[in-house]
Design a protein that fits this description.
Chain lengths: ~375, ~300
């Protein structure tokens, strides 16, 4: 018995649409088995994970709050992956953006600085994220160093740098020695959309990012170049597209979006700079990008779905004492199934019995 | 002089997991498969290795359990990338995310427990030689095993027919397939070997390096191992040099933190990661005459039957 892949003559559009759904279905089946192994009732565990967060206003707002950074980062990453440039250090760019924007918030704290502070913070965050992402991109195009490894290494560096700042120079003197800055001033805080709620302006920005990326990919020459360089590098070469320039561009955009997400997270839901501001948004966004089929609209839906796993995971930990790591297992398994189902789009897979006769027949 | 001895011993201990994991990955990459899941396989190896050692009290069983865990994870990777021809970079990332989650699940109830660390070699007379005695004859079994592994891999790659076939597949899978070599089967073995080594390297950490398990204890060592393979230009001998250099950077920054110098500890902790970036740049830059990487590295192969 043998598994054989045959290349499809045409991409199957029907499968392209349902393959993420198949992947989610398979993941849920696998998770049920895992819950049963952990000694929990799979039905009620799945209920806590996927249904309960959708039933009250607080959780629904929280869902959007968590989806905001995921969608923003994933849209940027999808541009990289479409251009076949592998930025996996978005987590680091997120942290650096948070640090750069927080710098202004810390410096203007207690002064009578006006409403220019928040926009300037967002700009700083985006610029710092872009510059930080350009380090691996430049190492790649100038020296040929693997952008996968360098971008990932810089995550650890950013993490340690943030840790140094909040334990050292930026620590809140009135913070009982906790590693955190003081709460940001109101002018340095992202405004909430509903009085007393959690939903904040970042959600609108994320929607704008999705719209901009849709236009960029579907309606502009640059978007076309990005897609061609990734899908057919040789054709792109003959077309005169500069693939190095596109690597720099996509890295800069994705870094800027990750940095922007970072400063929005710090100036919004968190309210101050501290270690652990991200439960792995930069890495989960990789899954969001693939689950969304590297398409901005798809990413919007996928971001909401993975935000659900974060909230469901927290609730399952409180309600059913299910370890928080189950969420990571869930996300890892989901990415496996998404990738496996993608294979269905490119190839027709068949199980072949008595393979020898078949191969001699076609050879 | 005792300080020098202590530093060398610490460097050897810090380098060993890097060397073991990188050796396994080198074999997989020589066969043309880029498995970015080393970090995930290592951390699961660490959790399973510690669990087994704590339950049975045996370091050997712990190491074996780490090896089995790493191999099983690498099998998932193999099914995806070899069986279903999925992109290797994305699958490797998925493996790392899954591994970090799994290790947390498996290791949760062992956090805070302690085990007896792996025994060190003790040869009366030889081990007591001042300065070099403990360095040469007083290590734990993993240190000797890691060096034997490198020699074994070198002999296999350059002195056996199977090793030649493996390298040929890594350089040109289409030609190798045309010559009748089973490309996917040999890649499967190479990936499994890489998984076994990563699992063992992970198990080394709680079994010998620190006698307890903490979540995320691999701290990027799997990624550094991947960088080491690039550093070595895919040659086992240079891997030893690279691994010991990185071990030295890790230990020296720890000693520098202890000594003070007024440099914040976070900056010193960042050194191994920054060093990795700098080394990758220097190595890639030095290769002006074309890349030394296996030519088919990271590309999928679908046999046309």
């Amino acid at each position: 018995m043998q598994l054989v892949l045959e290349k499809r003559a045409e991409r199957s559009n029907a499968i392209a649409l349902i393959s993420p759904l198949i992947a989610i279905g398979l993941t849920i089946v696998t998770m049920s088995i895992l819950f049963a192994i952990l000694g929990k009732n799979p039905i009620s565990a799945l209920g806590v994970y996927f249904i309960d967060p959708l039933t009250d206003s607080y959780s629904l707002q929280e869902l959007v709050v968590k989806a905001t950074p995921l969608v923003m980062i994933a849209v940027g990453l999808s541009l990289c992956y479409l251009a076949n440039a592998w930025n996996i250090g978005a987590e680091g760019q997120f942290l650096v953006g948070a640090v750069a924007g927080s710098w202004l918030a810390v410096k203007t704290q207690g002064t009578d600085a006006g409403y220019w502070v928040l926009p300037a913070m967002l700009l700083l965050g985006a610029a710092a994220g872009a510059l930080y992402a350009l380090i691996p991109a430049i190492c790649k195009v100038r020296f040929g160093a693997s952008e996968i490894l360098t971008s990932l290494m810089l995550v650890y560096v950013a993490d340690l740098f943030l840790d140094y700042l909040v334990r050292g120079p930026w620590r809140d003197p009135a913070g009982f020695n906790f590693p955190t800055t003081a709460e940001f001033d109101p002018v340095a805080t992202v405004p909430v959309l509903i009085e007393g709620g959690r939903l904040h302006l970042g959600a609108i920005i994320a929607l704008l990012v999705v719209a901009a990326a849709t236009v960029l990919l579907g309606r502009t020459i640059k978007g076309f170049e990005i897609r061609v360089v990734g899908a057919a590098p040789r054709a792109a070469g003959f077309g005169g597209f500069n693939s190095n320039q596109l690597i720099l561009l996509t890295f800069a955009i994705s870094g800027a979006l990750a940095g922007l997400a970072g400063i929005i997270e710090v100036a919004g839901p968190v309210g101050h700079l501290q270690p652990g501001i991200s439960p792995g948004y930069g890495f989960t966004a990789i899954i969001v990008a693939f689950l969304g089929r590297l398409n901005p609209i798809g990413i919007l839906i996928a971001g909401l779905f993975l935000a659900l796993t974060f909230i469901g995971g927290e609730q399952a930990q409180i309600a059913m004492k299910i370890p928080l790591d189950v969420t990571k297992v869930f996300q890892g398994i989901l990415l496996f199934y998404v990738l496996a189902c993608d294979s269905l789009i490119l190839y027709r897979s068949r199980l072949i019995f008595a393979s020898r006769q078949v191969s001699s027949g076609t050879g | 002089m005792e300080l020098v001895e202590a530093i060398v011993l610490a460097v050897l201990a810090a380098s060993t997991p890097l060397l073991i994991a990188a050796t396994g990955e080198l074999v997989a990459e020589r066969a043309g498969v880029l498995n970015l899941g080393v970090e995930g396989m290592m951390i699961v190896g660490a959790a399973c290795g510690f669990a087994a050692a704590w339950l049975t009290g045996s370091t050997t069983l712990g190491a074996l359990c780490g090896i089995v865990a790493g191999t099983l994870l690498s099998l998932i990777f193999a099914v995806m990338t070899l069986g279903l021809a999925v992109n290797q970079v994305a699958t490797g990332l998925a493996l790392t995310i899954l591994g970090i989650g799994l290790s947390g699940l498996i290791g949760a109830r062992f956090v805070g427990e302690k085990i007896t660390p792996a025994a060190h070699l003790q040869i009366p007379g030889l081990t007591d030689i001042p300065l070099i005695g403990r360095i040469l004859f007083g290590e734990d079994a993993f240190v000797y095993l890691s060096l034997a592994l490198v020699v074994g891999v070198w002999l296999f790659l350059y002195r056996t027919r199977a090793g030649l076939v493996l390298r040929a597949i890594g350089d040109n899978h289409v030609s190798a397939h045309a010559l009748g070599y089973p490309v996917l089967r040999i890649r499967l073995f190479a990936v499994m070997f890489g998984g076994a080594c990563a699992g063992l390297a992970g198990a080394y950490l709680p079994l010998a390096y620190t006698p307890f398990f903490i979540p995320g204890m691999t701290a990027g060592r799997g990624w550094i191992a991947l960088a080491l393979v690039v550093f070595s230009s895919w040659q086992p001998g240079r891997l030893v040099v690279g691994a010991y250099l990185f071990g030295a950077v890790t230990i020296l920054q720890l000693h520098a933190q202890g000594a003070g110098f007024g440099i914040p500890s976070q900056f010193m902790s960042a050194l191994p990661y920054l060093a990795t970036v700098i080394v990758l740049v220097l190595i890639s830059r030095a290769r002006t005459g074309g890349s030394t990487a296996p030519a088919a590295l990271g590309t999928v192969f679908v046999p046309d039957r």
